[in-house]
Design a protein that fits this description.
mainly beta; Sortase, Chain: A; globular
């Protein structure tokens, strides 16, 4: 569960699967955020990377297609809660889609990633946050 109090955002998060990514099933990101397959309890166990849409896809007519649109308003020092762990936002960046190295982060990092600008896939908006507790810290 992802909670961002300053935005009144509450979102379910599921773990992405190879089928989702191989088939480019982007509609799966309409209703909930997806945790990157090799983060969290997987390959990089001490940081998490979450993805969701910032605008509805062409074929979707529901309310949740813009789940991560509000994250564009986040500022440093705001709070994020993910699976009971509290994180403080350190910064935000706009990056190129090819900059996949952004997912390699130190322990205790949470990333929220969405397409930018709204309605476009030209760039990615990334929120960086650090855990407030010693869990996941070296």
């Amino acid at each position: 569960m992802l909670i961002i109090p300053s935005l009144s955002l509450l979102a379910f998060v599921t773990v992405g699967t190879p089928e989702l990514w191989d088939k480019h099933n982007w509609e799966a990101l309409e209703m909930e955020a997806q945790q990157a397959m090799e983060t969290g309890v997987f390959r990089y166990p001490y940081h998490n990377v979450l993805f969701a849409h910032s605008s509805p896809t062409r074929n979707y007519h529901g309310m949740a297609g813009d789940l991560f649109q509000p994250i564009l308003k986040l500022k440093p020092r705001q709070l994020i809660i993910y699976n009971g762990e509290r994180y403080r936002i350190t910064n935000t960046e706009i990056i190129e889609p090819e900059q996949i190295e952004v997912v390699i982060q130190p322990r205790g990092t949470l990333l929220l990633i969405t397409c930018y600008p709204i309605g476009s896939q030209a760039k990615r908006f990334v929120v960086f946050a650090k855990a407030l507790s010693n869990h996941g810290q070296m």
